[in-house]
Design a protein that fits this description.
The chain has helices at residues 2-26, 45-49, 51-116. By secondary structure, it is an all-alpha fold. The longest helix is centred in the last third of the chain and has 66 residues, at 51-116.
Length: 117
Amino acid sequence: MAALIQHAARRLSRNVATFRHACACMYSTGEMGSGAGKGGGGGGSIREAGGAFGQMEAAREEQYFRRLQEKQLKSLKSAHDEEIFFHEQAIKRHQDAIARHKRKQASIQEDESDLKS
């Protein structure tokens, strides 16, 4: 059980870190692909030159990060579903244990009342 929780926690922290990086890249200032120093520069010679090719490259990059973000969100939802399932199973086990202990308690009380009479 502990291993499952640790695994889910590792997946979750990895997804959150990558998600933050993707968001930071997506929300930079300036028009993407418009040349160096305007929010779209530093991404290679095509991007630094600006123009239509730079904008096209910026659009491809945005599309890549949008797909990456969708994939990460899907993975995050999956991790949450796994955690929910794990906790629901734990609740069921605890409820069963509570019922078992209540039955034992009732049995002990019956035995105790039999001894008194």
